[in-house]
Write a structure and sequence with these properties.
Keywords: ATP-binding, Chaperone, Hydrolase, Metal-binding, Nucleotide-binding, Protease, Zinc. Belongs to the ClpX chaperone family. This is ATP-dependent Clp protease ATP-binding subunit ClpX. GO terms for molecular function: ATP binding; ATP hydrolysis activity; ATP-dependent protein folding chaperone; peptidase activity; protein dimerization activity; unfolded protein binding; zinc ion binding. This protein is an alpha/beta fold. Helices cover about 45% and strands about 15% of the residues. Strands 4-5-8-3-9 form a five-stranded parallel sheet, with helices on both faces. It has a two-stranded antiparallel sheet with strand order 1-2. A hairpin with a 2-residue loop joins β1 and β2. The protein is globular.
């Protein structure tokens, strides 16, 4: 009789345990127990270390960090900074301090036109907080009985992004984009995505509120083994976002009816920023069930980007599209310069496309396509003027 691991016989060890026909000695049991205990302690301590670090973050510091990467949207950045601060203070209070005062969770709804930085803001925040973060598209989910993903897949992706660490998963962030596409059909002039939209909202209710959700995942760290995990969503922050097309018209009509003696049609600035007047009632009228909207108490909105905003996105922010292209040229020991007029021309083209900052990446790819294709033969230093940029874009836009 000998140990299957260390090969010691019965005279060299104190005890043998037989399991499934194999003998394991007491020395090996203690050895593996220490490894398991160390691993479990590390997983729990990783959460404690994270929460201790997050205690030092203040809303003003979060906002300043966002300012380095996101142009404009100051009010939205303030709301998100405060919401993130409050959320993790809530977790610290409820999990670490365990005081008698229980702070309730406040999920967020982020509204604004496409290309105004909604997703990018949240990616930037997740980089600062270093918590598990996942982005999902609401249009991919359907209620039970329809072809499509179940809402539980949201937590599967979050669990995978956390490195299969359940404790970290349960303090992560979920961003559900294009939430406006799952509004239910009603008698208004707003048309929803499909008939199962209300069912998806119903499916999300318990998850948003905080409940135990059972998920089935394939753990790549455990030899692709399928496992069932129970995730507590009580401390997961849910942020939903969307463009909410035509909602601004509904808000405008509502305000026009309620503001006696004051016509908003004469105020062009306010007409362009209707989202700042949004209420939960507007969202219910848009096609969301009251129970769903009730679980999203915080509303933030982003505004359309103007010429100045887009110019700053190119020239001022960290990791801008211009800096990324310069880095590619640096790796080839080459440089390029762009004139102010060429940048202004790109910005004007972007404004005409009407999809915000998202258009910049496509425009820059068109401008640099031929240059990068011939990167091995071009001069060490090149200068791009408006005439060149115009020649690359006029045939396309």
């Amino acid at each position: 009789m000998s140990c299957i691991f260390c090969c010691r016989d019965k005279y060299e060890v104190y005890l043998f345990i037989n399991q499934f026909g194999y003998n394991i000695c007491n020395n090996c049991i203690v050895f593996f127990y220490k490894i398991l205990r160390k691993n479990l302690d590390f997983r729990n301590n990783s959460v404690m270390r994270l929460l201790n670090r997050l205690q030092k973050l203040k809303p003003i510091n979060i906002k300043r960090y966002l300012d380095d990467y996101v142009v404009g949207q100051h009010e939205a950045k303030k709301i998100l900074s405060v919401s993130m601060y409050m959320h993790y203070k809530r977790i610290i209070n409820n999990l670490l301090l365990k005081t008698k005062v229980s702070i309730e969770k406040s999920n967020v709804i982020l509204i604004g036109p496409t290309g105004t930085g909604k997703t990018y803001m949240l990616k930037t925040i997740s980089n600062l907080f270093k918590v598990p973060f996942v982005i999902v598209n609401a249009t991919s989910f359907t209620e039970s009985g329809y072809v499509g993903e179940d809402v539980e897949n949201i937590l599967c992706k979050l669990y995978q992004n956390s490195g299969y660490n359940l404790k970290l998963t349960e303090i992560g962030i979920v961003f559900i984009d294009e939430i406006d596409k799952i509004c239910k059909k009603n008698g208004s002039d707003i048309i929803s995505k499909d008939i199962s939209g209300e069912g998806v909202q119903q499916s999300l209710l318990k998850m948003l509120e905080g409940s135990i959700v059972e998920i089935t995942v394939i753990n790549t760290k455990k030899f692709m083994r399928r496992e069932i995990v129970k995730v507590n969503t009580e401390n997961i922050l849910f942020i939903v976002g969307g463009a909410f097309v035509n909602l601004s018209n509904s808000i405008y009509n509502r305000l026009n009816k309620t503001q006696i003696g004051y016509n908003l049609m004469n105020d062009k600035y306010k007409k362009k920023n209707m989202y700042k007047y949004i209420t939960h009632k507007d969202l219910i009228s848009y096609g969301f069930i009251p129970e769903f909207i009730g679980r999203l108490p915080i509303i933030a909105n982003t505004n359309p980007l103007n010429i100045k905003n887009l110019k700053n996105i190119i020239l001022r922010v960290k990791n801008s599209i211009l800096i990324q292209y310069k880095r590619i040229f640096d790796m080839e020991n080459k440089r390029f310069y762009m004139s102010t007029r060429s940048i202004e021309y790109i910005v004007k083209k972007s404004i005409k496309l009407g999809i915000g900052a998202r258009s910049l990446k496509n425009i820059f790819s068109k401008v640099f396509k031929n240059i990068i294709y011939n990167i091995n033969t071009i001069n060490k230093v090149i200068f791009l003027n408006k005439k060149f940029v115009k020649s690359q874009l006029n045939s396309i836009y």
